[in-house]
Amino acid sequence: MLGTGSAFAKTYFNTNALIYTDSHTLMLDCGTTAHQSLHRLGKPLSDIDAVLISHIHADHVGGMEELAFRMKFAFGRKPLLFVPEPLAGPLWETSLKGGLLQDEFAALDDYFEVRLLQPGVRTELIPGLAAEPIRTAHIPNKISYSYVLNDDFFYSADLTFHPELLRALVEERGVRTIFHDCQLKPPGAVHTTLKELESLPLHIRERIRLMHYDDTKPQYEGKTGVMTFVEQHERYRF
Ligand SMILES: Nc1ccn([C@@H]2O[C@@H]3COP(=O)(O)O[C@H]3[C@H]2O)c(=O)n1
Ligand SMILES: [Zn+2]
Ligand SMILES: [Zn+2]
Q1: Which atom of ligand 1 is nearest to the CA of 15?
Q2: Distance CA 155, CA 167 (A)
Q3: Where are the domains of the chain?
Q4: Which of 135, 144, 153, 182 pairs as cysteine with 149 (C-beta 3.0–4.6 A)?
Q5: Residues 57-71: tens digit of each pLDDT
Q6: Ligand 1: does its nearest atom lie under 6 Å from the Cβ of 208?
């Protein structure tokens, strides 16, 4: 995990991840703190082959301009950009265009090898990594996706509580691990609260790990039962 913090956490980097396969490295969300986190890890940006985006908030896409510029002008290449089709237009028009537009560079594919994903469709992104975007509720009328990775790992990104989805993932689809955003103190508003997650049955809770938490997280350590915290700069196998 490049980070496990909430959007405004100061002691944790943004909840972004590096996913390693045998041959590639993919970044899952590239927020404002992503490059600082990579630097802290001693991980060169040139090691990144691909990026996958969940939604347009700075803690998830705020590092995309730096990624695009450095890849293009420092390394002379275009990383793969996997993005659900409905998000591709808004990603350029409402987020990246302001910084990246210059005469001859006027679209996402001037900076990235763009691969459009279809919501609800499982696609192999790179050898050994398949992703299915699931449109999930975060902020009313905001396009936002969670991902099922390799059929048995669910990454919520930012999600308001959706117990039926979690139940279906576990009971019908055999998802074994859920990395879920967790707002420690209510109200959740645009995220899922710890209290909401604690209301789930044990067989679901025991698959959940908590991420996207605020700076008060140390006060909750050891108090979240079977749902333990995901830690930044730790590696997890799935
Ligand atoms: N309607 C909204 C919109 C945003 N927010 C806060 O801003 C953050 C943006 O990044 P996030 O990780 O989605 O978390 C959001 C809320 O903290 C919020 O609390 N209510
Ligand atoms: Zn967020
Ligand atoms: Zn968000």
Answers
A1: 12
A2: 14
A3: 17-229
A4: 153
A5: 999 999 999 999 999
A6: no
